[in-house]
Write a structure and sequence with these properties.
The protein is mainly alpha-helical. It has a single domain, classed as Alpha-Beta Barrel (TIM Barrel), CATH 3.20.20.370. The chain is 43% helix and 8% strand. It is built from 9 helices and 4 strands, in the order H-E-H-H-H-H-H-E-H-E-H-E-H. The chain has helices at 10-19, 30-35, 40-48, 50-56, 61-70, 86-93, 115-133, 153-161, 195-205; strands at residues 24-28, 98-102, 139-141, 166-168. Strands 1-2 form a two-stranded parallel ribbon. It has a two-stranded parallel sheet with strand order 3-4. Helix 3 (40-48) crosses helix 4 (50-56) and helix 7 (115-133) runs parallel beside helix 8. It starts with 9 loop residues before the first helix and ends with a helix.
């Protein structure tokens, strides 16, 4: 999950997870939560369109940063794309079976970021989440999550050095104990995933 988990939506998901005792990790990038603004891709899509969002994933970190700052939008109350607040995040972290995971501070394509800037993105994100929730953050999800394109072996080393125990990609598949701890598979749950497909994934991965 991204930080855009609104109170009106969250209880429905929490009800299902609790009913079937399914644990979950909510991966959060910290800048929208702290600054109270929309995710960069939501802001850019609203102002410049979805094609520009995809283009920005391929440009230099410096250009990406300039465009995102120029088109940043505040998160208005009632906006379904607004991120959770610090208070809401802390509430989530107190729910049994729910873990909060790291996802960088501002969600860049890490493969296009210098070593020092990657480290800052990863370390700052972890420190903010732990300060807000009072819990150790052990899992990390790479933004976009495709090997080589979005993150590199150097990124994985930085994640490990920053104190994370697990890393998750977007390589489609069920995470298993036999995968590298910092490169687990993960299904991305998008709007187009049918109820039948979701049911199959849950039944396969979470048997009682």
């Amino acid at each position: 999950m991204s930080p855009a988990v609104r109170p009106a939506v969250r209880p429905r998901a929490m009800t299902i997870l609790r009913r079937y005792a399914v644990p979950a990790v909510v991966f959060v990038w910290s800048d929208p939560v702290e600054q109270r603004r929309l995710a960069w891709y939501a802001a850019v899509a609203r102002q410049l369109g979805e094609p520009e969002v995809e283009r920005l994933k391929t440009v230099s970190y410096e250009e990406w940063r300039r465009v995102c700052e120029r088109h940043a939008l505040p998160a208005e109350d009632g906006d379904p794309c607004a991120p959770v607040s610090v208070v809401e995040l802390a509430d989530l972290a107190r729910i049994p079976g729910i873990e909060i995971g790291g996802h960088t501070d501002s969600h860049p394509i890490l493969a296009r970021v210098s070593t020092e800037e990657q480290r800052e993105e990863i370390v700052w994100n972890k420190s903010r989440l732990e300060a807000w929730t009072g819990r150790v953050v052990r899992a990390f999800a790479y933004p976009n999550g495709e090997s080589a394109t979005d993150y590199t072996p150097e990124t994985m080393k930085l994640v490990e050095e920053s104190g994370f125990d697990f890393g998750f990609t977007t390589r489609p598949g069920f995470a298993t104990p036999h995968e590298p701890a910092l490169a687990h598979s993960r299904f991305v749950m998008l709007r187009g995933v049918s109820a039948g497909e979701l049911g199959h994934r849950l039944a396969h991965s979470w048997r009682h």
